[in-house]
Amino acid sequence: MIEIENVHKSFGALQVLKGINLTVDKGEVVSVIGGSGSGKSTLLTCINGLEPIQQGRILVDGTEVHAKSTDLNKLRRKIGIVFQQFNAFPHLTVMENVTLAPRKVKGMSKRDAEEIAVKQLSHVGLGDKLKVYPSRLSGGQQQRMAIARALAMSPDYILFDEVTSALDPQLVGEVLDTLKLLADDGMTMICVTHEMHFAREVSDRVAFFNKGVMEEIGSPKQIFESPQNEETQKFLSNVR
Amino acid sequence: MFETSLTLNDLMFMLKGAGVTLLITAFAVVGGTVMGLAFGVIRTQIKPWMAIPLTFLLDVFRSVPLLIQLILANAFQAIAGLGLSPFVTSCIVLSLYTSAYCTEIVRGAIEAVPMVTRRAARSLGMTWGQDMTQIVFPMALRVALPSWIGLTLGVMKDSALVMWLGIFELLKSSQTLITRLQEPMFILLVTGAIYFMLSFPIARLGGRLEKRWQEND
Amino acid sequence: MGNYTFQWRQAFRALPQMLDGALVTMQIAILSMLIGVTIAVLLAVARNSKNRWISAPATAWVEVARNTPALFQIYMAHFGLGSFGIYLSPFTALLAGIAFNNAGYLCETFRGSLRAIPPTQTRAGLSLGMGPVKAFRLIVMPQMFRIAFLPTMNQMVWAILMTSLGVTVGMSTDLTGVTQDLNARTFRTFEFFALAAVIYYLITKAVMLGARAVAWRLFRY
Q1: What's the gap between Cα B157 and its chain centre?
Q2: Is the minimum CB–CB distance between C122 and chain A shorter than 8 Å?
Q3: Is CATH 1.10.3720.10 what the domain over B8-216 is classified as, yes or no?
Q4: C31 CB near a chain B CB, below 8 Å?
Q5: How far is C217 from chain B (nearest CA, A)?
Q6: Where are the domains of chain B?
Q7: Which residues of C touch B178 (CB under 8 A)?
Q8: Does C164 contact B at CB distance below 8 Å?
């Protein structure tokens, strides 16, 4: 369970998150929508402790992320994250990209790690690209590799940060299909996304962020068909 | 704080040496830049295979230690009976040495000017000469200047090697004082400080130019 | 030129001796690079530190190495340290001087390469549960070495050329030292040094070609 309680976050004088409260249960898929600069991506990097917060707290399975005593490296093993900009490791093959963390962080043997990697890469449709370097892959393939890389650590949660925003339109579908598969498998996911169809179809709940505030949260049906908040209505009428 | 027998006279002696360092550097850089410009332009104009002899020759200056170039040139002028002083020999060798690096800088800078820009200039009816002077040269200068400043500083530092031919430049002067006064560390620190003061401000300027011009792009 | 007869045969007879010298030259160059690279990585990390007590000495090292002649640096090691009662042999002084110089230049090469690697790479590593050190070692450093590889090999060529300066502090076993010895005995300056020049040329060319081949094999991505 991820519990976000009254989280405030600022970069210098700029307030990015102004008191966010959100609880995500095991097995739940929550989509976060909103305009750019609404703070939704920052929230994800706060959850896995990449960014410090100024106020409030975030608990992952009861462990406070920003507490001094927390071993972030250990905590991050169970929170996978996939970035907008793939962040493939260019000097490693697809296989090595995926096996690196299981081997060097979890201390898994090469054979075990590769077994998992093959499974995960086939799962995202890259079973035939094991020995290829990322520079030879399309954006969509790189992003799917990044997803496999996160999955290879067998995390309990995965955070998706606008994973389709940097992709050419024709490559978006293949990545979203992968996400859907994951959701069907019962993975706990928080997806920051601009894909309204995806948010609507896959999520259990949808949250709307605006200027650092979570204006509204509810079932996809509720948010998309009868939004209560004025800002939500404005946003949705613009993206449609 | 420092007990030293280094007199003001000795310091003047060292500064005179620094003057010789600067003089040799100036000759070498002027000569080397003129030749480098010529060679660089030639290299971009002729076919690659025709440039091979020139490229090879200049490459020799970059692949053989400067000290050995100086010794060889000095021995050669003695054998040939040219009667050149060590100072003149040093200036010639350092000029050629500088030109070898300068050619690469010039060539790189000219090649950095996009072909489309040059085509545009020629399609406006400019002659080859106008294209070179009005378009290519100003654009290439921005690319070349930081490296050229680095080259100048490099030549100044490398000019210390002419001491081997008995020229009293800065380092040779300090060596003489070391032998006389037996205070190697202190005298070398003064020497280093002089080199540093000659080099560091210009190096900083070069770095700043490079940064500024990159930002503008 | 009429009265001078070149005696190439004499020079060629000394070739084995000179090649032995060339081995010493390579030995010094390689050692100075190994030391230089190691120190340069530390200097690069130190220069990027926010603690002034750590970054300032590193900056001083780099600026002195880059703004004074290599020959001066070798003099410092040989004569300068004598003031503290430390007397280095010509070999050690030469090695120390070149390593000092290498470290200063390579530090800047490495820092430039580090800047070329997006910080998101480190973040990706951290997100997978790596500590900062592990992320640097497994993700950033291999990429840094690729970008820095050819500039580093250029420094290797410089190191080879710099070994010739050893003769000024009494080094007599490297290529230049051996050549100078032969020269002092025979006064055949031109012949011996011309041969030495050819050997230096071949060595530097071999190093550069080797580096290209290695780069081509190693960095397939």
Answers
A1: 9
A2: no
A3: yes
A4: no
A5: 25
A6: 8-216
A7: 79
A8: yes
Do A148 and A73 contact (CB within 8 A), yes or no?
no
Q: Which domains does chain C have, with CATH numbers?
A: 8-214 (1.10.3720.10)
Distance CA B154, CA B165 (A): 19
SS3 of B66-124: HHHHHHHHHHHHHHCCCCCCHHHHHHHHHHHHHHHHHHHHHHHHHHHCCHHHHHHHHHC
Token duo for residue A141:
């393939």
Range of the domain at A89: 2-239
Structure tokens at C187: 């006064």
CB-nearest to C221 from A50, A73, A90 is A90
**B157 in contact with chain C, both atoms CB, cutoff 8 A:** yes
| CA atoms B184, B190, B193, B195: torsion sign | negative
Interface residue A70 vs chain C (CB under 8 A): no
Per-position pLDDT tens, chain B of length 217: 456 778 889 999 999 999 999 999 999 999 999 999 999 999 988 888 888 999 999 999 999 999 999 999 999 999 998 989 999 999 999 999 999 999 999 999 999 988 888 888 888 888 888 888 888 888 999 889 989 999 999 999 999 999 999 999 999 999 999 989 888 889 999 999 999 999 998 888 888 888 887 665 5
Closest CA–CA distance from residue B10 to any residue of chain C (Å)? 18
Whether C83 sits inside 8 A of B64 (CB atoms) is no
**C102, C59 Cβ separation under 8 angstroms:** no
How far is A99 from A92, CA to CA, in rounded Å?
10
CATH code for the domain in which residue A129 is found? 3.40.50.300
DSSP, collapsed to helix, strand or coil, labels residue A208 as strand
Q: What is the rounded (10 degree) CA torsion for B123, B128, B133, B136?
A: 60
List of chain C residues whose C-beta atoms are within 8 Å of the C-beta of residue A80: 127
Alpha carbon distance C46, C67 (integer Å): 20
CA distance C218 to C221: 9
**Predicted complex ipTM exceeds 0.85:** yes
Residue B184 has, within 13 A of its CA and on its CB side, a CA count of 17
Residue among C175, C208, C221, C220 at smallest CA distance from C194: C175
Pick from A185, A163, A160: which is nearest to A174 by CA? A163
The answer to whether A and B touch (≥3 CB pairs < 8 Å) is no
Determine whether the interchain pair C134/A135 forms a contact, defined as Cβ–Cβ distance below 8 Å: no
CB atoms near residue A87 (< 10 Å): 24
The string of DSSP codes covering C133-173 is HHHIIIIIHHHHHHHHHHHHHHHHHHHHHHHGGGGGGT--S
- Judging contacts by C-beta atoms under 8 Å, the chain A residues touching residue C134 are 104-105
Task: Please indicate whether, in this complex, the C-beta atoms of A77 and C123 are within 8 angstroms of each other.
Answer: no
Task: Give the CB-side neighbour count of residue A5, counting CA atoms within 13 A.
Answer: 12
